[in-house]
Amino acid sequence: MKKLIITFLTLFVCVSVLLMSVVVFASVLQIIPTKDKSENLRLPNSVAVDSKGFIIVADTDNCRIVKFDPTGKKVFSIGMKGNQKNQFSYPAAVTCDKNGNIYVADTGNSRLVKLSSDGKWIASWEKVKAKQGKLQAPMGIAVDLKGYIYVSDYSLSKIVKYNSKGEFVSEITKLNTNGDKLNFPRGIAVDSAGNLYVADSGNNRIVVINQKGNVVSIYNKINNYFKLHHPLGIAIDQSGENIAITDTDYHRVILYSLKMKKAYTWGKNEKNKFILNYPTGVCFDLKGNIIFADTYNSRILKIVIKK
């Protein structure tokens, strides 16, 4: 399973793309590991921010989940390699609900895990083996305001919806647009209206699906200029007006304003000398800044948007 997962994580790697267009005032900071603390990450694949601003990281190759305060100071770490309680196998995605509970796509164990905000094990759902709802390689996870859990299964190319108890509700494989199908979906996010944003990586696009399962939008290009290539991460901010995408094979992060129809990208920041290497998971913090996992550099970066 480890070989399978590492293969998924290393598909389609290509040369770095330089910074293409930035017309917003922003700065790039490394927040984990901090300069004065040695908290070594190994191939982190996902990052989330809870309602209090704390940062949760899926430290994939260390097989653990780590929580940090907003400054990058470690609060707790849970996990080691295994398939029992308090163990993980290459977890690829994390998210939080409105109460601060942490949900984990425990990829190598083909299961979902729920932790409390202080890192205590609440539940694991590894017995989802029915014909509908079966998981094989969950690699994206999101929770809506009603507590429903959405999981992208990378190898089965589908999105599965569960209730707060981990019980199967529905799943999406085919899109209702001329038989179109998802292809290796990875990062997912859900807005306040329940619309689901999917990084459909194998199709090199972002797909937006409403609560009825209807496709609302498809983005093969952002702002008709930034062509996507194997996007793995997607996030939407609290206003619902801005999305962030990790366009992984181009080694860049894209910020797109749905309202203004403008896009900005970061790939190489000459001033701060941050060169990205296979960015994956992405989220917004409470101030609208972008936080993402710069995976092959084993660090978490923040793009501070100056408004």
Quickly describe the structure:
Residues 6-23 have low confidence and may be disordered.
Task: Explain the overall architecture.
This protein has 307 residues and is mainly β. It has a single domain, classed as TolB, C-terminal domain (Neuraminidase), CATH 2.120.10. It has 1 helix and 28 strands. The chain has a 4-stranded antiparallel beta sheet, with no helix packed on it. Residues 6-23 have low confidence and may be disordered.
Estimate the global geometry from the Cα principal axes. Answer: globular
For the termini, the CA-CA separation is 44 Å
- Gyration radius, in Å: 17 Å
Strand content: 35-45%
The CATH topology name reads Neuraminidase
CATH architecture descriptor name: 6 Propeller
Helix fraction? Answer: under 10%
GO molecular function: zinc ion binding
InterPro entries: 6-blade_b-propeller_TolB-like, LDLR_classB_rpt, NHL_repeat, TRIM-NHL_E3_ligases
Pfam family, one: NHL
Keywords: Repeat
Topology:
Layout (H helix, E strand, L loop, with lengths): L1 H9 L15 E7 L13 E4 L5 E5 L4 E5 L5 E5 L14 E4 L5 E5 L4 E5 L5 E5 L12 E6 L5 E5 L4 E5 L5 E5 L12 E6 L5 E5 L4 E5 L5 E5 L1 E2 L3 E2 L3 E6 L5 E6 L4 E6 L4 E5 L1 E2 L4 E2 L3 E6 L5 E5 L4 E7 L2
